[in-house]
Design goal:
Length: about 525
């Protein structure tokens, strides 16, 4: 057995042991209420002459918690829409097809790019409509609709969180058509700098840049029912974008020095990014504390951290001190882009994941980004499955991964099916964020009714708090199972008897819990059934 295979097996075994010891249960106490079993639909008989059905004081059965998300990129029409200029109906049909794919494969979140180049895939008074929608900067969809509102409602109806993904400083992409008079490059030239590859970038050091980008973020937070705000790895641009030359902000730096500034140019740039990240987190929490803020920086903080790691130094190349943001807790979830394979020694996936875990001193969510672009062959399907399993073993307290991107799930059906047959076979809830909200939703009112050889379970919310999902628990014999239902559903059918190992096992208990927008689960009332 090779050293690499032996290491992987040890990591996976560790994950199995850790997860077998972990139960995720609601933190509130269950209540005990005697209820009457309702009549059948035809009202001719009861389940028996003396149904003894009681809501017992028991904790909720275990339900899996794991963040399962995919990025959906709009820049260059990578994922959606498939090309500029589609009709509203065509755009919406494509969006629903992507969301249905994620739901059918048991994902529970989508990270949707709404600002690829200082533009908007939503109705904005601050920036023009995106070129990637219509093929023309500033042109609204025809017939008019708000794509972000559509995506939010459609995602929520499918039980998925929607996080808006913004590029804070990129103002023109090479695939974004000709520069338009409506482009921010022309309407706000005072904060713009050109790059050698044809892109334009905002100067991150300028107060006007930070004020404008912060205003864009907060405009979305205030007006849209989103679950999270997400930045990726583009802070200062990669040096390749400028032909290896330094970022063209010499005038801004000299202005800073002339006012008594003493930081080196590298520290000055990092300080500008650090203050912006902290500001965004603070402003989101002041407006809507339950909206999560997530970051997905380049996967290596600095070469040599840990000692076996080699690669680009984002600290000095992108002026992104991602370790600081994690250490300070200026994020709710952290998604380093660990797009390398397990046995790629200089950038090994588990080695980097372990290092980032050691830096997560405030216990925020650590949900690494993994690449699905290794291909659809059996070896690459195994690589993806193994990375997910390693993540579960190393991060049992808050499991999750974000997949770059949704496209390989379409291009490689065997990859999508391999995930569904393997680690994503069971549905999962997004892990809760107790530092954002720890109040449990109210226990729903539950009704059970026999209809022939089925039992219909229905429920309704109690209290004013919004319920995002429901978990229906059901037990045959001594084995609990569950299914997660979205907000559009309030009833489900269960078989009265189930065949297990050639034996008929009767439905013995059910129960329903409510899940709020930050993942908190209500207390649980078990309804026992006797026949």
């Amino acid at each position: 057995m090779s050293t690499n295979i032996r290491s992987i097996m040890l990591i996976l075994l560790c994950g199995i042991v850790l997860n077998s010891c972990k139960s995720i249960k609601p933190s509130g106490p269950p209540s005990k209420t005697v209820v009457e079993f309702p009549r059948e639909a035809n009202d001719k008989s009861r389940m028996d002459e003396n149904p003894d059905i009681e809501q017992q004081s028991k904790n909720s059965p275990e339900v899996m918690r794991e963040f399962r998300a995919a990025w959906i990129a709009t820049v260059a029409n990578i994922n959606w829409p498939s090309k500029p200029g589609l009709s509203t109906q065509e755009q919406q049909e494509e969006a629903l097809k992507l969301l249905d794919l994620l739901k059918d494969h048991h994902y529970n979140a989508v990270i949707f790019q709404v600002r690829p180049q200082a533009d908007a895939l939503y109705n904005s008074s601050l920036e023009p409509w995106s070129y990637f929608l219509s093929g023309e900067v500033g042109k609204a969809p025809e017939p008019w609709y708000d794509p972000l509102s559509f995506w939010i409602e459609a995602a929520h109806d499918r039980g998925m969180e929607l996080h808006v993904w913004l590029n804070p400083y990129r103002s023109h992409h090479t695939t974004g058509g000709e520069l338009s008079p409506k482009s921010l490059v022309n309407t706000h030239p005072e904060i713009m700098v050109p790059l050698k590859n044809g892109m334009w970038w905002m100067d991150p050091s300028k107060e006007a840049t930070q004020d404008h980008s912060a205003a864009v973020v907060m405009d979305i937070v205030k007006r849209y029912d989103i679950d999270g705000v997400h930045f990726d790895d583009y802070f200062y641009p990669y040096t390749s974008y400028n032909d290896g030359q330094d970022f063209p902000d010499a005038i801004s730096y000299q202005t800073y020095l002339s006012k008594g500034g003493s930081l080196s140019v590298s520290d000055w740039r990092r300080d500008a990014v650090n203050s912006f990240v902290q500001r965004i987190y603070s402003e989101i929490k002041a407006e809507k504390p339950k909206v999560k803020f997530g970051l997905s920086p380049f996967g290596i903080w600095r070469p040599g951290h840990p000692s076996s790691i080699a690669g680009m130094d984002q600290y000095d190349a992108l002026y992104a001190d991602a370790k600081l943001w994690l250490n300070k807790g200026w994020i709710d979830y952290f998604t380093p882009q660990l797009y390398w394979k397990i046995n790629q020694i200089p950038q090994s996936f588990p080695v980097l994941l372990g290092w980032w875990k050691s830096e997560n001193t405030l216990n925020r969510h650590l949900w690494p980004g993994i690449s699905l672009y290794h291909g659809g062959g059996a070896e690459n399907v195994d690589e993806t499955v193994n990375q997910i399993m390693i993540t579960r073993g190393m991060l049992p307290e808050s499991m999750g991964t974000v997949h770059w991107s949704i496209k390989p799930l379409i291009s490689y059906p065997n990859l999508a099916q391999g995930l569904l047959d393997g680690p994503y076979k069971k549905q999962a809830l997004v892990p809760a964020s107790p530092w954002l909200n720890s109040k449990l939703p109210d226990v729903p009112m539950v009704r059970t009714e026999r209809e022939g050889q089925k039992v219909v379970v229905s429920w309704e919310p109690v209290g004013p708090e919004e319920v995002f999902k429901w978990v229906v628990f059901y037990k045959y014999g001594e084995n609990w199972e569950y299914k997660i239902m979205d907000r559009t559903q309030n009833t489900t059918e269960l078989e009265l008897n189930k065949t297990t190992n050639e034996n008929q096992v009767a439905l013995s208990a059910v129960g329903v819990t409510a899940i709020d927008r930050t993942g908190n689960q209500s207390s649980f009332n078990e309804i026992e059934m006797t026949y």
